[in-house]
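ARCHIVE CARD
Drawer: 12
Card no.: 0347
Subject: one protein chain, sequence and derived structure
Cross-reference: see card 0346
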Amino acid sequence: MSVSRPSPADPDLTLPPNGLPAPTRHRLQPLLLGVLALSAVPAALLAADRVAFENSEKTVALVMDYPALAAQAKETGQTPETLLAHYRSLGVNGVAVYEDVVGSAVQKGRALLLSGADLKSRNPDLPGIDPQKTYLRSIEAGTVEDLARRFNFQALIEERTIGGQTWYEWPIDPRFLPAGPDTALIDSLKSQGYVTLYRPYDDQRVLNVGADWPDVPFIAFNGTEVIGARDPEQLQAIRERLGNRVPALIEGSRQTGLNDLIRGRTAARMFSLNATWQGRLSPEEVASKYALAARERTQRLLYLRPFPTQAETDAFLTRLGGQLDRAGIEVGTPEIRNYEPSSLLRALSLLGPLAALLLLGLSYPLPRVGLLVAGLAGLGALALNGLQPFPAFALIAAITFPALGIVLRRARITDWFIATGLSLLGVLFVSALGASRDSMLGLDPFRGVGLTLLAPLGLVLLSFLPRQDVRRTAQDLFRRPFSTGDLLILGLAGAAFAVAFLRRGNTSSVGVSNTEAKIRQDLQDAIIRPRFKEVLGHPLLLVGLSGVLPGYLGALGLLGGVMGQASILNTFSHFHTPLLISATRAFIGLGVGLVVGLIAVEVLKWLIRTWNTYGGWNGGQAPRELN
């Protein structure tokens, strides 16, 4: 491909009135913009399909942890059934029941368990009692016999007659071995209409794992791995025994083997708070987190634990119910389906990011450098995503579109709308190519999410290169003298960018103050909270484009503004967040940023004018004309 170069008389060489480096217009720009427009059609169709799918997925189940509920009932002098009925009146419609253990049969009075030492102390004259073993006797006929048949060491369990009674001698203490479901409890809960979630334990000594699982809609595994994660044959058996039960994806707990277990089927995202962490928070704070999980993270199962007191639990459930109601989220039995986008529409959408990346490279003052940078960016995205085209081109869109508008047009303040429009166009491609069944479940997170904030800044910065030999540019920069003020300003700008970059995502290496955390919670309870990077970045871009700042400060403002544009695409790269929620967040940020930015431009004009003219002093120079 031949690359056109502007002649010395090219009007593009004229410095724009805002003092920023002039953009370059390539002769292929209209054609590539046309390709962008056409490829946006299938991307928009995919966006509409995704919105329709997400709007049909607004039912959640409030699932109460049964052991915690039973413990609170005991402390408050109630039965678990009575306390659960009370919480049902406040919105709870589900119960999580753990698998019984051998010790449960003892607690329920169906069996008696004694250590060998205890049994020997009670019968000192009887021979054959081994103090190092454990002895069980059925109170309800057949209980211990049935338990023994569950384990692969059943041949080592011996029947003994001691004091005229039949005991079973176990080689280990079996109290915490999995003993199957409490079918009576589960059947009772199901008959009352509760959404039931079963939590089985994993133990390699159990035979025929999963053969006796109850008929419930959901199942959640305990620990850091699913049953069978270490044994492919057992994992396949578990896959077959799941039946219609839907496994839960526990937020913040990536269980080993879960991806393989749910291959070809679906799963339900489940949110819960660690009991210790919940104990440090108020009921209002916990309710806010659960409501946020349901509204903005597509969590379909909200796993609840009661607070230390019933009054606190009542306050938590009341507030949570109100927040879910305001968000239009219904409490019921979630119907879990997979999102399956059209492969044809996704393939057609690939042209958009490709055209945008090519256009970006050709629009650099040094087109060969631009094409090299574009090529490296494309190859890097493919490599980062294992040569998978859809997620790779979603990443290309996320790093290209925030920079494209600023590289193409940056002559006046109204070019902010062009940059923003192209960023929003990029959103369509990020969603079309990145949203899939696994990414929306959180199983396949967006690879390169940090690059979506960093790469656009570099792409815009490279467009500042002058039309001359790169070696000469490097030499000029190396020889340029820097004042103390220059170093101070650049240091502050670098620190500000580092803080903004490190504070990306739901968790970061840079914390927030208690005041900021309270502001965030209040905002997310009242509205969909905008991202602070956008609220700051959009005004910076407006200030940079306005030309109000002298010297290179305008360019620094523009580069800071790239963060706001990049944050738009970064927002939409969290595919577990509904598309309309991300759109609302982005448009709130755009609206606030536009207003703040326009005000900031006028305030800065007044401040600079006052500084230059106050008392007749202008630093020995004519006042800078502000436009």
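Annotation on reverse: The CA atoms of residues 278 and 286 lie 7 Å apart. The chain is about 55% helix and 10% strand.
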